[in-house]
């Protein structure tokens, strides 16, 4: 089995998706009572959810992973989780909006049952909650000018062409570029994704390096750009898959296991996976490898 790193862009920048303090959507926040995996009557968490007809999910309002549009919860995680819970006999997702850093503490406090935010699976987080098997990986891509004038395909081609690469400040993509042998003078730091798109369009950089998921979403509002096919970069000889999954409270392993059984059906069916998640920029390149396991990711 391949070795998998514990660092991802979304793990590295886990404070950047905060939405300014703990926020709730009026009328959508449910009671903050803790839900245990069982009760004195032996009733399990899934059976409780089936009886009440809904599951409380948390999101961080980060497109395309999980966000509210009007009154509808959209994105990769809510779309996938809605499909899974409906298959488990729970028809409705009831959302709670949280700052990114508050997602796991809120889960531990019983404010919701599942984190539906595309959260990266890291050993540190595994110490505080339990994750599903990976529901996606985040291969890297390059945003370039329309027509891809430099004919870039990956970091090796960028190094060979001697182009200037843009990366997000503090993000792990900078280490990917350096690891590929691109000199620091050819790596420009930008503060936010739109800055990268603007720099590409303005010719200040030749390519912007970020996850393919994020770049495809960004390209929707930047029509003078295009995104290369996604690729898996290496760092210190290891593939950087950057996987994410659903998060459950410790003690709800049975619920997590039921979720995993339905998740496996979807990720094993490439056409179904793409049909569900393509509107959010997820395609076949985001389907997790069969041998990529949460247990290994949690070990680091």
TrEMBL record:
Q: Which GO terms describe its biological process?
A: ectoine transmembrane transport
Q: Which InterPro entries match?
A: Ectoine_EhuB, Solute-binding_3/MltF_N, TAT_signal
Give every Solute-binding protein family 3/N-terminal domain span.
54-284
Q: Is Zinc a UniProt keyword of this protein?
A: no
Q: Which PROSITE patterns match?
A: TAT (PS51318)
Tree of life domain = Bacteria
Question: Which UniProt keyword terms apply here?
Answer: Signal
PANTHER family assigned: ARGININE-BINDING EXTRACELLULAR PROTEIN ARTP, MEMBRANE-BOUND LYTIC MUREIN TRANSGLYCOSYLASE F
UniProt cross-references to Pfam families, sorted A to Z:
SBP_bac_3 (PF00497)
Q: What is this protein called?
A: ABC amino acid transporter
UniProt KW Signal keyword: yes
| Example GO molecular function | ectoine binding
């Amino acid at each position: 089995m391949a070795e998998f790193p514990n660092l991802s862009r979304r793990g590295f920048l886990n404070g950047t998706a905060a939405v300014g303090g703990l926020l709730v959507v009026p009328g959508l926040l449910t009671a903050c009572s803790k839900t245990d995996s069982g009760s004195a009557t032996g009733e399990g968490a899934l059976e409780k959810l089936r009886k009440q007809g809904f599951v409380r999910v948390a999101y961080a309002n980060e497109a395309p992973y999980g966000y509210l549009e009007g009154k509808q919860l959209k994105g990769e995680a809510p779309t996938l989780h809605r499909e899974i819970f409906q298959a488990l006999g729970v028809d409705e997702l009831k959302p709670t909006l949280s700052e990114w850093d508050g997602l796991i503490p809120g889960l531990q406090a019983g404010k919701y049952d599942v984190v539906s935010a595309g959260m990266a699976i890291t050993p540190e987080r595994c110490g505080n909650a339990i994750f599903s098997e990976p529901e996606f990986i985040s291969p890297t891509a390059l945003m370039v000018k329309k027509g891809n004038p430099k004919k870039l395909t990956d970091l090796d081609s960028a190094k060979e062409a001697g182009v200037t690469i843009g990366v997000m400040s503090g993000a792990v993509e900078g280490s990917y570029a350096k690891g590929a042998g691109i000199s620091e003078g050819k790596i420009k730091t930008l503060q936010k994704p739109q800055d990268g798109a603007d720099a590409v369009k303005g010719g200040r950089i030749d390519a912007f390096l970020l996850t393919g998921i994020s770049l495809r979403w960004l390209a929707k509002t930047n029509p003078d750009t295009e995104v290369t096919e996604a690729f898996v970069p290496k760092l210190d000889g290891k593939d950087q898959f950057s996987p994410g999954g659903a998060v459950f409270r410790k003690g709800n392993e049975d619920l997590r296991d039921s979720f995993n059984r339905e998740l496996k059906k979807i990720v094993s069916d490439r056409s179904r996976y793409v049909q569900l998640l393509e509107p959010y920029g997820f395609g076949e390149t985001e389907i997790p490898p069969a041998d990529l396991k949460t247990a290994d990711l949690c070990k680091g």
